[in-house]
Amino acid sequence: MDEFDILPRCHHWIVHDHLASYFTYQDCLHALCNEHHLRELKFLYEEHHQAWAQELSTFLLEAKQRVERKGVLQERAFKKILARYHAILAKGRRRHPGRPGRGAQSKAANLLDRLEAHDWSVLAFLVHPEVPFTNNQGERDIRMEKVRQKISGCFRTLHGARVFARIRSYISTCRKQGRNILDELENAVRRMPFIPRVAARGP
């Protein structure tokens, strides 16, 4: 994680799962991927019949839809949402009080611990327009690398890996910028590569 030299210099939002290593980067602003939460909650509801898990899933999806329709929340509205969030967690906590210092806990108790400890990171998408609901975009961006790894097992040289990453990065950028990928690949071969737009920075 240090080798890429991105997270050590990051002073903006990063959206990730609950891997503890991410939280060692103190200069970042941390938001948590709610798609991961939805998968865990679905498992708890379908396999263990946890009603609170279904309620929390519905709450998160409704909150996402609300932001998409009306934009982020003001402080007063957010406090009401936060109170409802903790009320749902309290229902789960009554069933899973936790066992600090007493060995392994259930998956539900572990999830409740994380959701309680990082409530602001779970709900950051409600108050910060630049924070997405999930980190699915990041996962989609590296999916082809994982497919390539599954097919070939590895890259034979570091140079080959870098060339592959450069090509995939170029294609991904073209797609996000709404460019025709085939046309832009042809332009790149003709030594006229597409240069992406960069958002203007404030003072």
Terminal-residue CA separation:
31 Å
Radius of gyration: 21 Å
Task: List how many beta strands DSSP finds.
Answer: 2
* Widest β-sheet, arrangement of strands: 1-2
Secondary-structure-derived class: mainly alpha
The global form is globular
Uncertain runs: none
Number of self-contained structural domains? 2
Helix content: 55-70%
Number of helices in the DSSP assignment: 8
3D structure, described in words:
- There is one protein chain.
- This protein has 203 residues and is mostly helical.
- The chain has two domains: 7-126, no CATH class; 136-189.
- The chain is built from eight helices and two strands.
- It has helices at residues 34-48, 51-70, 75-95, 107-117, 119-122, 136-152, 158-176, 181-189; strands at 13-16, 29-32.
- A two-stranded parallel sheet has the order 1-2.
- α1 runs antiparallel to α2, α2 runs antiparallel to α3 (75-95) and α3 (75-95) packs antiparallel against α4.
- The longest helix is centred in the middle third of the chain and has 21 residues, at 75-95.
- It is globular and about 65 Å long.
Structure described in brief:
It contains eight helices and two strands.
Q: Topology, please?
A:
Blueprint: E1 13-16, E2 29-32, H1 34-48, H2 51-70, H3 75-95, H4 107-117, H5 119-122, H6 136-152, H7 158-176, H8 181-189
Parallel strand pairs: 1-2
Helix pairs in contact: 1-2, 2-3, 3-4
